[in-house]
Design brief:
Strand order of the largest sheet: 6-7-8-3-9-10
Helix content: 25-40%
Shape: globular
Largest sheet: 6 strands, mixed
Distance between the termini: 27 Å
Order of helices and strands: EEEHEEHEHHHEHEHEE
Number of helices: 7
Structural class: alpha/beta
Amino acid sequence: MGNGDSIISFRNADICGGENTVIYDLDMDVYPGDFVYIVGKVGTGKTSIIRTMIAENRLAKGRGEVCGFELNAVRERDIPYLRRRLGVIFQDFQLLMDRSVEDNLSFVLKATGWKNASDIDRRIMEVLDAVGMAHKSHRMPHQLSGGEQQRIAIARALLNNPQVILADEPTGNLDGETAKGIMELLTGINTGRGTAIVMVTHNLSICETYKGRIFECRNESCSEISDGSNASGSGCHEETTGN
């Protein structure tokens, strides 16, 4: 479907948010090395697209393919294998607060099939080095700032060398200077590793500073626009959680 090289592709896809369709006839292709923004007002379906990509929300109509998995046909037991090919970053970090940074990452590796202790330790240090957090491996999440917690969340997303990272408002809970550091880290991963990034954001100024392809959700549709200046400005600079 679509271009054979795409790693995410939707054709005439209806996207659900809960029981309701929030986006009709989505056409989207994401290719290796892409940096793709999904922008729009609160409640226009941005997060619902991400949830559909990870097979958390059902695809109401049309076709969708993510990392070789057909969303229409993927079996429940195969969804964990789909998700292992993705890295997911959330606005609220979603770290396990009862264990150290190192144990957070170890938990993910063991859950995705890693068994050799030395391999696990080596991979944890590799991803912590990549995000500048190797010196915080033994800290508990509550001992870290918001920006540091998000860096750990990015490290977690890198653990299994994903083809694409899905980032849902990764700067939404951060101050401007910390958000800048996170964006520079993400763009560095994108350009340095060739990892595709799909990022949901309300903040159009981010799109203007860190260039990428832009899809705008509006009026129950989502389509690619040429640049951030064409996006509707009203409501797009809020940093609150929405769909």
